[in-house]
Write a structure and sequence with these properties.
33% strand, 7-stranded antiparallel β-sheet, 2 domains, Pnp Oxidase, Chain A, Phage_phiJL001_Gp84_C, Elongation Factor Tu (Ef-tu), domain 3
Length: 291
Amino acid sequence: MTGLLEHLGTGVTTTCRAWALTRRDGVVMGFTDHDRLLAFEGIAFRPDTGLSALALQQTTGLSVDNTEALGALNDAAIREADIEAGRYDGAELRAWLVNWQDVAARRLLFRGSIGELRRAGGAFEAELRGLTDALNVPLGRVYQKACSAVLGDRDCRFDLDTPGYVSERPAEEVEENRVFRFAEMGGFAEDWFRHGVLRVLSGAAAGLIGLIKRDRTEGTGRVIELWHPLGAKVMPGNALRIEAGCDKRRGTCQFKFDNLMNFQGFPDIPGDDWTITDPSKAPRLDGGSRR
C-alpha cells in the first residue's frame, strides 16, 4: 500500500486494475485491463478477456458497496454455458489497483460477490455486491410447526451417508435435463427421494444440483423429476448422487430418519385460529357474570 501511494504521488503513474474471481466450485480466474499478463498472490491475471468494471461506489458505515462488471463471453474465459449452469452465482470477486511495473505496489479496492448476472449479444453484465450485503440476510429462528433445518446441516445433524438414504448410480434416460428414468431402484420406497436433492458428480454438469419434485415408480422402473432443469447437459452414464428427502414434518423426522431429538420445528404451537378465538361464545362479551 505504501509503495502504491508513493507511486501515485509522483504524478506519472503506471496503474491498471485487476480482478480475481473465485467460483463456489473452487475455480479461480484472474483478469486485468492492462495489455499484458500480470501475476501476484498465485493468480495469473489475463489481459485478453475483455473484462472491465464501471465506477466503484464505496461509502462509509454499513451501506452496501456496489459496482458492475462488463465483459465479452469467451470460451477461454467466461463461457455462456457456465453462466447458464449457474457456476458464477455467488462467486467471490476481489478488485485491485495495481502498478503494473511493480505488482507489489497495489491496493485492494473491492471485495464482494456476484449478484444478478445478465447476458445478451455475446456479452455479460454482472452486479457486484460488497461484503456488507451479507447484513441484509435475516437472522434468528422462525417459530413455525415445520422444521427450519436443512436435512444434514449442523442443526439437523443427520448423517446422509447412513446406509439406505443415498443412491449413487449412473444416469440412464434423461428428458429435458429434468426427468431421470431408471430401469430399477430396489430398496427404496416410492416417494423416498421426494423433497430431496440430486447431485451430478461427473460430466458437463458436474457440481450442479437439482431439487426433487416427484419420485414415483413406473412399471418396474423409477422416475425422479426435478423442479427445474439443470443448467448443463446430463448424459447417460454420468454419475449421480440422489439423496433422500424430508418434508419438514415431525412424523417424518421421527419415523423416516429417527432424528426427533434434533427436530427444529414447533409442532404444538397454536395456530392463527386459536390466537384470535373469542374468550367466550356467549352473547354477552362484556366481562360480566353470565347468570
